[in-house]
Specification:
about 110 residues, mainly alpha, 2 strands, about 80% helix
Length: about 110
Amino acid sequence: DNLFNESKASIQKYLDNDILERTDGYGFKYFVYDEMWKLYIYKFSKEVAIEEVEYTNKFFSLIKDKHTYDDILKFIYSFLENFKTIINELHKKHHKDLLETVAKHVNKKK
C-alpha cells in the first residue's frame, strides 16, 4: 500500500490534470495518465503474483517430499525475509518504468 502511495504521489500532478485520451462506445472515458497508472499497478501486481506462486509451489514441494518441520520453518522464514526484498526490487523497477513512461509522454507533448 505504501509503495503504491509513493508511486502515485510522484505522478499526482499529472493525474490531477489528466488528459482525455478517448471515450468508448459506452461513454467510458479513458485518460492518459490514469491508464499509465493502471498499467503500472497491473504489471507490478502481476509480477508479485508470479513470485507468490513460485514460493507456494516450492512450499508444497517441501510438504509433499516429507521434509522436516525445521526445513519447512526455515523456508517460511526465508520466504518472509526474501519476499520483502523482492517486493522492494519490483517496486523500484516498476516505479522507474512509470516515471519514464510519464516523462516520455510529457516530452512528446512539447
